[in-house]
Amino acid sequence: MKAGVLLSGVSRDPAFALRQIRKDGFAYAEIQYAWGAEDGDRTDEQERTLKRLFAENGVTCTAILRNLFSGLRLSQTGPDSPAFLNELSHLRGAIRLARYHGCGLVRINSFDKQNVLFGYGGAENHLADGGAWRSYLRLMEPVCRIAEDEGIDLMVETGTNGVLHTAALARRAADELKSRRFRILWDPANCLYSGEEPLRAYACIRESVAEIHIKDLRCRRALAEVTYCPLGRGLMAPWLDELAAALRQDRFGGAVILENQVTPPGKTELDGYHSSAALFRELFGEPEGGKTI
Fold first, then answer.
1. Is 178 left (phi over 0), alpha (psi -120 to 50) or beta?
2. Residue range 16-37: average pLDDT?
């Protein structure tokens, strides 16, 4: 596996972030935000500078992470709606950006979360009859078609606030869409918020996972409350060793990315990164004296 870091979780200054992660022994990274601008919103000159900085530091960009389709409500979005067509345009731009940076993956999100997608035993009459799910699949058809035409893989993130907020739902989407370009960006901490155990989740989607995001959190679900915390100090703590061992046993070939979103009180995201980087490298980094497997 390829242990890497989300640059914007270290600093929005990519020159500093790249020097820092290289110093810490990481050779893979995602960008998402640089100089305050999201993937796809930077100037051509900024992208040329980023490409040079990656090369100078010996770091490989693994994926483009624009927040595509994030927050769009299924009940208000159709294949011809302006908001959706605008996102398709941004998707094509993200694909061009991925090619420019030499990576074959573009992250997408899965619209706005629906608390209940399927109902049975009468619940279909009061909560959900599967209509939102059918809408999601219908909207994903042109998305997958673009990826197939462009020859690039899309990886949908298991996001806390998205339709596919568990690995089980991502697995169902992959099975029903039947697109060879539909992959999964698995974030086990996000799925834990929905009560899905990481090892069971991984077993469900292992053949479709393109990348993995690693972070930790604590939560009070009854209050819909999430607190990001250093790796190993939250709900992920009991699962980290076994998850790392499972990935090594499977010889997982994708990137495993430290997605720091911790901002300690009175401190910065850089401090949050430092609070997790050593344990992350120990768990998912390359063996001492060897190469990343």
1. left
2. 97
